[in-house]
Amino acid sequence: MGRSPCCEKAHTNKGAWTKEEDDRLIAHIQAHGEGCWRSLPKAAGLLRCGKSCRLRWINYLRPDLKRGNFSDEEDELIIKLHALLGNKWSLIAGRLPGRTDNEIKNYWNTHIKRKLFSRGIDPSSHRPINSLNNKSSSSNSRSLKQEIHMADFFQYDHSEVTSCFERVASDAGSRSEERADINLDLSISLPCSSPPDDNKNNDRKAAIDSKEIISNSTAGKMCCHVGLPVNYAACCENRYNGENGGLQRGITCDHRLGLDL
DNA sequence: AACTAAGCCAACCGCATCCTG
DNA sequence: GCAGGATGCGGTTGGCTTAGT
Questions:
Q1: Which of A125, A147, A206, A255 is the most buried (most CB within 10 A)?
Q2: Quick check: A79 and A69 in contact, CB under 8 A?
Q3: Helix (H, G, I), strand (E, B) or coil at A128
Q4: Which residues of chain A (82-111) touch nucleic strand C at CB < 7 A?
Q5: Distance from residue A89's CA to nucleotide C16's C1', rounded to whole Å
Q6: CA of A36 to C1' of B18 (A)
Q7: What is the pTM of this model?
Q8: Sequence-separated contacts (24+) of A40-44 with Cβ below 8 Å
Q9: Domains along chain A?
Q10: Which nucleotide is nearest to A55 (CA to C1')?
Q11: Local structure of residue A127 (DSSP, 8 states)
Q12: What's the DSSP call for residue A108?
């Protein structure tokens, strides 16, 4: 049966926004606030689809947007966050005040990918390109050297990685077949750093983020995501449960991954 | 100066998820 | 619990700009 279109396509403008359209949209949002994008175009006197208005506001007209080049610090933060979160551009944008998901996505595709390639790192897996070419007998098992490289990149403690890796190796035996089936390409979501405010959408987002975090075994999924051995996850979990009486989500996880957020 | 290729980014599209009645 | 509407997200595209020949 199919969904009804979000707007009457025959009567909407497409393509680049004019100054007049921008002004109308800004004036309307300043007067009435964000929200109800579907009815906004009509109310604002715009011949645009609600989605288009939302996108224009979020990516271009919002007053808190930071225009201009990305700093080196932002570059590195994006790289680390991408290693952690994958293509979750909106979550990454949540950590970069004044930047939009679209902007970061574009910047990633045009600049950072190239930068990582030049460093010999595969931008999608964040692993050394050499290791991708050297697919050994088991595509899911990596050498200790490779794990150490990961540890370097994410600022892990080498000895901890080494001991965990050794434990995994010694544990391999009968479960090696089983392990080969484990999909290590798990991804997680982290809570947005911005504190919740009265905005309905932020509240909703915070609720979603909480659910995601609670439903994930934080250290475990994170380690899987960055490619560390499963036992390393358990190791982290135990260690932090012991020291802190429970893994502190968010801050602790960021810290474990070397993110100064 | 004219043409082409590459780079860049705003905007669109379709799907996923959430919300509401 | 379910269906349909609203919103958000990520992938992709089209067109403009810049660099190279």
A1: A147
A2: no
A3: strand
A4: 87-91, 101-102, 105-106, 109
A5: 25
A6: 15
A7: 0.59
A8: A41/A7, A41/A12
A9: 12-61 (1.10.10.60), 72-256 (no CATH)
A10: B11
A11: E
A12: I
